[in-house]
Amino acid sequence: MNVNYNPASVFNQSVDFSFYLIFMISILCLVGITGFMIFSVIKYSRKNNPTPSNLEGHTGLEIVWTVIPTILVMFIFYFGMQGFLKMRNVPEDAMEIRVDAGMWWWKFTYPNGLEQNTAQGLTVPADTPIYLPLHSVDVIHSFYIPAFRVKMDVVPKAVGADDNYTWFEASQIGSFDLFCAEYCGLNHAQMITKVHVLTKPDYQAWLDEQSAGFIKQQAENPGKALITSKGCFACHSSDGTKLIGPSFKGLYGKTEVVVTNGEEREITIDDAYLKTSIMEPSKDIVKGYQPLMPPLPLTPEEINAIIDHIRELSE
Asked: Is the pTM of this model over 0.90?
């Protein structure tokens, strides 16, 4: 049964078949049960059945309505299991792209070390299996590409993320929505990006160009590269715009009122405060903001690089 003549991924037909199968069975059950109810209302109405009779049961009928639903459920289970096993068996030649998720950003790390974030999206070659190990740095998220019929929770390691992955193989050239399908906090609705599917030659050209730019940015401004790759710009702007957290522009050296252990105090944003905010983000909260930032796994060198860039944005 071909329910999608132009599938966007290799999963479309199997998933759509299971969906339409369940839909058709549900319609048949609805029509059958509704028809039986109407028949019973008419046949056993007071007009057609003035003397009611007591029904003691019917063994054959009870067997029928037990066996038939069981067969239907097993039938549905079989096709669902076939689709599930296909989604869990990653082809041996699949390209690996690591997916990291956090409130409220995505990060994609390619085999050569190139990192792309929510604003840039996930770029892949067509007709190539893509293996995606999934990792969350804070709460449970959900990696969902509707056009590819791919959806998998992204859970923190403490919850059991050792075997958390999905895969797909795109069949169409174009851009497709990718978003978080698990409510993960205040800015959940903004955790949306695109999957860009290119031809294999176009993908290689894109990868070479992006990799060269990424290496150059890491060398010239490692702090900005880290802020971009860690998804910090999802909550902090660099142009003064107020988002979930304070803007980085003009932040260094600024006097702010922070809340520490429920008490307000005035501080000056300096290296020590920024280090604390990165390592212990819930310790000193700038007044007017919520304690939503997760701690970031960074080395001392990376923290210093980020602080240097924040200082540059304040000069």
From this structure: no
